[in-house]
Each structure stands twice: as C-alpha cells, then as structure tokens.
Design a protein that fits this description.
about 260 residues, mainly alpha, 8 helices, globular, CysZ/EI24, cell inner membrane
Length: about 260
C-alpha cells in the first residue's frame, strides 16, 4: 500500500514541478508539438473518412413508397460520421502517444536531465548532443522491442482466457496490469537512460518496486485515455518517472551502456 501511495504522491509533485520556471519550457514545447501533430492528423483523417461516407451515400435517397425512410437514413449516416470522429479520437489517444514518445524521446531526455539535476545536484555523464540523440533513439527502439513481442504473448493469453467461463473476468485485469507496467517502465527509464544505466539493470531495479511501477503506469495510462489531457500528460509523467528513479531506484555508480 505504501508503494501505491508513493506513486500518487509522485504524480502530484510532478504537476507542481511542471509549473516551475525551470521546467515550464520543457512542458510547453511538447504540448505545442502534440497539439499541432495530433490535431492535424486527427482532423485530416476524420475529414477524409467523413467526406468518403458522405460521397458514397449521396445517392441513397429513396423515392416512392419508401421515401419516408430518408429521414432515418440521414440520421443513421450523421450518427455514423459522429461515431467515426469518436472512434478516431479514442484511437489517436491510445496509439498516437507511442509515436510521439519515439519522436520526442530526445527532448524528454533533456526534461528528465533537468529534473534529475534539480533533485540530486549531480551533473549528467559528459556526452555530445548527437550522441545523446542516437542513444535515446536506440533506447526507445530497445523498449519497443521489449514490449512488442511480450504484448503479443499477453494478448494471446488474454484471448484464450476470454473464452473460458468464470476465468474470463480476469482477462481485462491482466491486460490492464501489463499495460500499467509498460507505461511505468517507459517513463521511469528516462531517468535511468540519462545516467546510462543499461536497460537490463533498469528492469531488475523496477522489479524491486513492482506495485509502485504498476500504480504509476496505470494512473498515467488512465490519464492518457482522456482527450486533451493526453496532450500534456507525457512531460508530466516524465517528471514523475524521473523522481521515482532518482529517489527510489537509482544507486551510486551507474554502469555505462
């Protein structure tokens, strides 16, 4: 229970730190980036699909005896277009963040570095900016590979359990816990990566605070699914994850990757 309470406390602290003068630019810039990219792709795809539906059903008007159904048909088509916009919003909320994390990883690394230095007062290992960008990008690819094939296995298990009476009630819980672990790992790793802690070492340390990582990731996942909130939750989660790493999981004398 103490680890669960700690996860909530770290998120509250991160919201306060995100408003400070030192960290505010690192929160605002990703927010603007997310709004432009997320909003642009969402509007373009939604407009294209809605236009396609409208064009494809332009000649669906009935005549003669069945003309009284035209009003119902128009209502169904309008409802379908609204449903498309809603489904696209949910899709972008759940999937788009993965792409944003990959693209914005170097910038989030700078944010995690600022938070780390504020808390510890210790400078980061010396590294050129190009080297840092390459390292963080490779780290994101490493994390993507870690969760991708495991997610397929978990999905297979959940799919099998779903069709077993009684036991199927645990299917959603298994997927929720797995997703929470992944997000917790994702945001805590920014702090570990800045200190050049190998990915495998970082994973071993996460296992010593399983409920802290799970709760933190689950709360972030829930916030990610909320429209508009998901646009700025990423830098806030990076701050919280860095605090968790620095105060709960890091050790003196990290090893170079």
């Amino acid at each position: 229970m103490s680890q669960i309470a700690d996860a909530i406390s770290y998120l509250k602290r991160s919201l306060q730190l995100a408003r400070t003068r030192e960290l505010r630019p690192y929160v605002i810039v990703p927010l603007i980036f997310n709004i432009l990219v997320f909003g642009g792709l969402y509007w373009a795809s939604g407009s294209w699909i809605a236009g396609w539906i409208t064009a494809s059903t332009a000649d669906w008007a009935l005549t003669g005896t069945w003309s009284f159904l035209n009003g119902a048909i128009d209502f169904i088509l309008d409802a379908a277009i609204i449903l498309v916009w809603i489904l696209l919003l949910a899709l972008f909320a759940s999937i788009f963040s993965i792409g944003v994390q990959l693209i914005a990883a170097p910038f989030m690394g700078f944010l995690a570095e600022k938070v780390d230095f504020q808390v510890t007062g210790h400078p980061m290992p010396e590294e050129s900016i190009p080297a840092m960008i390459v390292r963080t990008f490779k780290r994101e690819l490493r994390k993507t590979w870690y969760w991708l094939w495991r997610a397929l296995l978990v999905l297979l298990v959940v799919g099998v359990i779903y069709f077993i009476p009684v036991i199927n009630v645990f299917a959603s819980a298994i997927w929720f816990l797995w997703s929470g672990w992944l997000l917790g790992m994702q945001y805590i790793d920014f702090g570990a990566d800045n200190r050049q802690v190998p990915f495998e070492v970082m994973l071993e340390r996460l296992k010593t605070r399983r409920w802290l990582v799970l709760t933190f990731g689950a709360v972030v996942m829930a916030l990610t699914m909320i429209p508009l909130v998901n646009l700025f939750i990423m830098p806030v989660a990076v701050i919280a994850g860095t605090l968790i790493w620095v105060e709960q999981l890091s050790e003196q004398g990290t090893v170079n990757s």
